[in-house]
Specification:
The chain is of the alpha/beta class. It is built from six helices and seven strands. It has a single domain, classed as Rossmann fold (3-Layer(aba) Sandwich), CATH 3.40.50.
Length: 223
């Protein structure tokens, strides 16, 4: 039995990670922002902690509360999206700050708070759920300024961690276009398909993959 930590476990990809790992008999520790969000992952058997990803002190406190708990796989999944059609002129300063706070800064603080927990685990893997929008060299779509730049920053931070912590495996992952609250109804992938693919990639990842940006199908994505 593995121990998995999933941030943003209340819905979408996070909840699907909970469902699949619990179905395999793994211990899952999840975070959600408020008590009302805890019902679904708790029904699946996850241990739930309340944590707002904007609260850096709260992240550190949770790390201390779980001191001595080995974590095999950490999945930094929690993220926010400023809106599909928001133009540069429409994005407020607060939206920029919140987007970077949750999508870029919080995962790094989670990695810091739980670094020793993952080092004590058997698999020693830290996974950041990124986005195809994070790729500067391959992305030709317009807009999504705050989201895409925050995810590119996440990728840069995760790659830096891979260099700094060679005993751990750090992978940024593109989940694909998925039918979640962030996606659209016409998205080609279900959460189950995306997470099944990502879990397959995570399971076979080795130290040689640390620092890479990989798709849910295992394809390496250009930065």
């Amino acid at each position: 039995m593995a121990t998995i930590l999933v941030t943003g476990a209340s819905r979408g990809l996070g909840l699907e990670f909970v469902r699949q790992f619990r179905a395999d008999g793994d211990r899952v520790i999840g975070t959600v922002r408020k008590e009302a969000d805890a019902e679904a992952p708790r029904k699946l058997g996850a241990e739930i902690h309340l944590l707002d990803m904007r609260d850096g002190d709260g992240i550190a406190v949770l790390g201390k509360q779980l001191a001595g708990t080995p974590i095999d796989i950490l999945i930094a999944n929690a993220g926010i999206y400023e809106g599909r059609d928001t133009t540069l002129d429409e994005i407020s300063e607060q939206v920029w700050i919140d987007t970077f706070r949750v999508n870029s800064v919080a995962p790094m603080l989670v990695a810091r708070a739980f670094r020793d927990h993952v080092k004590a685990g058997r698999q020693r893997k830290m996974i950041a759920i990124s986005s195809g929008f994070a790729s500067i060299s391959t992305n030709t779509k317009l807009g999504h300024y705050a989201y895409r730049s925050s995810k590119a920053a996440l990728n840069a931070g995760w790659h830096a961690l891979a260099l700094a912590e060679p005993e751990l495996i750090f992978i940024a992952m593109r989940p694909g276009w998925v039918r979640t609250a962030m996606g659209r109804p016409e998205a080609p992938l279900s959460p189950e398909e995306s997470v099944t693919g990502m879990r397959r990639v995570i399971a076979r990842a080795t130290q040689a993959d640390s620092g890479k940006f990989l798709g849910y199908d295992g394809t390496e994505i250009a930065w």
